[in-house]
Amino acid sequence: MSTSSIPIAAAGSPSWKLPYRGTIGMLCLIIAEAAIFIIFVVAYLFYIGKSLSGPTPAQVLELPIFGTICLLSSSFTVHMAVVALRKNNRSGTTMWLGATVLLGGIFMLTTAQEWHHLIYEKGLTIRTNLFGTTYYSLVGLHASHVIVGLLLLTLTFYFSLTGRLHEEHEKKLDVLSLYWHFVDAVWVVVFTVVYVLGR
Amino acid sequence: MSSLHVTAATGTLFSPTSIFDPAGTPSHSIFGLSMLILGVTFAIFLIVGGLLLYALLRYRVHPGDSEREPPQIYGSTQIELSWTVIPILIVVMLFLTTTRVILGTESIPKPKQALDVTVIGHQFWWEYRYPGLGVATANELHIPVSDPSQPTPAYLTMSSADVAHSFWVPRLAGKMDVIPNRVNVMWMDPKEPGLYLGQCAQYCGTQHAKMLLRVYADSPADFAKWVEQQKQPAVTSFPGNAAATEGQRVFLHSACINCHAVAGTVANGRFGPDLTHLASRETLASGPIPNNAENLRKWIEDPNAMKPGSLMPAMHLNDHELDVITAYLTQLH
Amino acid sequence: MATTTPIMEVIDETEATGHGRPPVSVIYDWITTVDHKKIGLMYIFYALFFLVVGGFEAILMRIQLAVPNNHFLSPQVFNQLFTMHGTTMVFFVGMPILFGFGNYLIPLMIGARDMAFPRLNAFSFWISAFAGLLLYYSYIGASGLYAAGSAPDVGWFAYAPLTAKVFSPGHSTDYWTLGIFLSGVGSIGTALNIVTTILCMRCEGMKLNRMPLLPWIYLVMGGLVFVAVSPLTAAQIMLTLDRYLGSHFFDTQAGGSAVLWMHFFWIFGHPEVYVLVLPAFAFMNEIIPVFSRKAIFGYPAMVAASVGIGFISLGVWAHHMFTVGLGPAGNTFFVFSTMVISVPTGIKIFNWLATIWGGKIILAPPMMFSVGFLFQFLIAGLTGIMLSAAPFDWQLGNSYFVVAHFHYVLVGAILFAIFAAFYYWYPKVTGRMMNVKLAHWHFWLFIVGFHLTFDFMHIPGLLGMPRRIYTYEADRGWEILNLIVSSGAIFQAAGTLVFVYNLVSSYFKGENAGHDPWDAWTLEWSIPSPPPSYNFAIEPVVSSRRPLWDIKHPEDQDSEYE
Ligand code: HEA
Ligand code: HEA
Ligand code: CUA
Ligand SMILES: [Cu+2]
Prior knowledge:
With 199 residues, chain A is mainly α. Helices cover 73% and strands 0% of the residues of chain A. In chain A, α3 packs antiparallel against α6 (170-197). The termini of chain A are far apart. Chain B is 37% helix and 17% strand. Chain B has helices spanning 2-9, 25-58, 77-106, 220-231, 242-252, 256-259, 293-301, 303-306, 319-329, and strands at residues 115-122, 125-130, 135-138, 140-144, 154-160, 165-167, 176-178, 184-188, 194-199, 212-218, 283-284, 289-290. Chain B is an alpha+beta fold. Chain C is mostly helical. Chain C folds into two domains: 1-29, no CATH class; 33-561, Cytochrome c oxidase-like, subunit I domain (Cytochrome C Oxidase, Chain A), CATH 1.20.210. Helices cover 66% and strands 1% of the residues of chain C. Chain C is built from 17 helices and two strands. In chain C, α4 (75-109) runs antiparallel to α5, α4 packs across α8 and α9 runs antiparallel to α11 (342-356). Classes of the chains: A mainly alpha (199), B alpha+beta (333), C mainly alpha (562). Chains A and C meet through α1 and α5 of A and α6, α7, α8 and α17 of C. Bound molecules: heme-A (2 copies), dinuclear copper ion and copper (II) ion (CU). Dinuclear copper ion (CUA) is lined by residues 121, 124, 165, 200, 202-204, 208, 211 of chain B.
């Protein structure tokens, strides 16, 4: 029996479809990132109320309602951008992307303001006590993810503005939006842990 | 007193620190469990290893065998089920026995006559305090022998002044970590008087290797005598011993007192071992060095030559100062 | 039986390696490559280099421990050696060599032309490689507790607060932290690539239940890397913040917890050992059937057991912390979860046994090492069970018994499996067979050395010898045992040298291998050796788990049994 049957036939049968690698890759990244966040969240929860000195969260933290609303609604806008691109509505894409960048930017501004307030008016730094340690690292870790997302979104917005974003990029934008949704979801957790449970 | 201890220390099984030579309740119940587990795992090894060996010998290909491939077998639900269920049963059995020993060691009430000892781990020595008795010592732990009808176990409340250590005297009990900012408790009840050896079992820095443990189990009478003696403040006058008298003066005027305490004098440092009854100890620097005048002098001259990495600095004393301080310290019975 | 599969030869006529090119251009080629095979090989070379480095460190430690109260090494140097040895062996030998094999083999076995993200692949390799060099640069650059030129000396699990600035001044610990952090980034990148490749790049017809077991297990391993290495990365970030910005995560003076670090480390550390052992299982799953001439027994059970091990291993970490004082509830929970792991692991052992049973066992070098693996892994697993009984661990924990247990797995099982994999796939990679006589020398030297070293290492542990001590007292009854242990290391070194020599000399002098020297069944054996840069000229289509078996045995198709 030598060459009677060959496993190597011409490929390309339409029924053979595997998931898009960008999406799977992003999901893997999200799992890994989620694990990192879980560790920081655990550290935060573990150290609630264990600081040896003040200030305590109840004394200095205020609910960042406005920033939260902005960040959460940016999940909606980025989704709309994907939908628009899918329909090849180019100006719609640009507009929604712009809105996303704006909302994300506002969120970062509110965080910056909060940190400024805490550092210069309340005297809370990362070295002050366990609360400072866990607070700045958890919120900072999230903020760094927002910044990465914003950089990518801004780049996409720029491409869109200059007319270089087309329907065939829809999958890629979808992957980016996946990341952004993840960053938002993490904020919900961070918000609950830091501002609700932690106070 | 000491000769008795040293002979008793040499356990039967080649080694004074064998876990198979238990001399207390916790180590004994672990010993029982370990025998069971060794037996079970050894049986598993014999069966599975035997089958493997048999298959390898039986089914090895020999020159001249036919060229045909053997029959292809892809699996069998029944067989696979059986070798899932049997291990599960073994696991449940092992788990239940293990749990019994855990509860028997960790969850039993503390007897009233128990002796409380506070153990504090330091880089690279042990501090012992007896809160009920007003005794503070270092490196050599004394506890009474515990009579099973009238148990007087020692309860060690342990913490660390710096990094993590672990308290392990194999013949008396399993180890328990000694961790900063955390309090752990373990207990031991030696059945026989004698010296039980062990050593720090958690890597704690340069001299982790020479952070040895010595536990002296004394008969109740000996123990009471020991306590009585340790409660006394240090000797402060040395009639007829000019060297020791001068040594005391030099000692109390040098930096030694920043780190060492000698009860009854101004020396009350806590960074190094308590020296109040230094001369009553058999070893120096947590076990590795026999306590005699010669070693003591060498130690004070340059601790790092004897125990490199030790946190006691060489004090750059001259020969005369060394002589008199040694003379003084050897008098601290 | 001596079937060949000539189809592909017709298709491929290109020269796989460029002969006679100037060395600069060859080097440039390797540095800039994004080809999974080249990256895989670079991982493997890199790991082999560090195996020799880490082995050399082990030899130095064994010389020091051969006799009591030895002055060959100072305590400082010894402490650096075991830290570097453990860190090197786990992060710069184990991980890269397994990623290397995965990189090389997975696309070939699933009929793909490359990994899903070739450039990410190259990035991951280079960042891991940089991490290793960074760690070793500490020997030159770091100033530790003892002035310049000191490597980290905190142990491979670097318990807090020994790593805090007060107890580890200078920068040696920072090199350790950064090295581990970067290697973790590389590992996550590669794992992401492996998982995506397996899920998205399979050739037509290769449904998940037709995929060879090697990619299956790498899929599980990739998943484990995400959830295991990431916590370590997080913990390293915290430690770095502590050391550079003065935060207090593990600062016990400010109320921080030393135990928290232990949890974080072992949440990584335990799954990590399964990350290391799963690929070893994967090699066995490919090699044992071929050299027993039988299909793997219980394919679905094998897959299920691997996935099961992956999940259970996430819930057992505190068996490294039985002596921390977790309390009875914590201890019993972790005793149970740890013991349960023996069930899926047992399934694997039994399935291998059943695969051998009734087969025609050919004891070629890959199979010799596989047999070594089977026995040694069995013993290692059983000593693991002893450790998992918490009270027994109160005695054995942090003693040489533990060191013996994990070397039994890491050397006796994983390293043996890696050697088997080398002998098995070397012909594919180079087109040449490895010398069998040298392979026998390697095997016997190494196995004798292994058993001398690690069998006898259990006993000092039972006699109360803790690990990580640079010297020991003479009156404890440990000295003869330690001498035997140390002598075994020499045999292992000799065996390793023979192996390295064999690798090199066979490349030039080995017999021509042809593309299918073992008469095997998976796709990588259908293409020339070495494989052309595009792997498959035409993308293959498969209809069973063993496509080459189907070609060779048209009367007895595998697909009928699935
Ligand atoms: C790849 C590596 C690897 C693997 C696979 C394992 C596998 C196992 N290990 Fe091991 N282990 C390590 C690497 C590994 N280990 C390392 C590196 C350390 C030390 C780290 C350090 O401190 O530096 C360590 C330490 C370690 C400890 C902590 C000791 C201590 O520090 O105090 C424990 C305790 O429970 C343990 C248990 C186990 C168990 C139960 C398994 C199980 O998975 C084994 C399961 C297998 C079997 C049981 C055999 C086959 C099964 C059968 C034949 C079925 C029938 C059997 C039964 C029903 C029992 N290991
Ligand atoms: C994959 C992992 C792996 C591997 C393969 C090994 C391989 C070996 N290990 Fe290692 N080991 C660990 C992982 C590994 N180890 C870990 C994680 C620790 C814990 C560290 C810690 O506590 O922090 C440890 C700790 C450890 C200790 C305990 C140190 C201590 O606690 O004080 C010892 C002591 O004997 C030891 C010995 C050996 C020996 C003899 C080998 C041999 O099998 C090595 C054989 C290989 C060679 C010898 C290489 C060939 C070398 C050459 C070809 C060069 C020859 C040159 C000359 C001889 C001059 N190891
Ligand atoms: Cu203290 Cu080791
Ligand atoms: Cu483990």
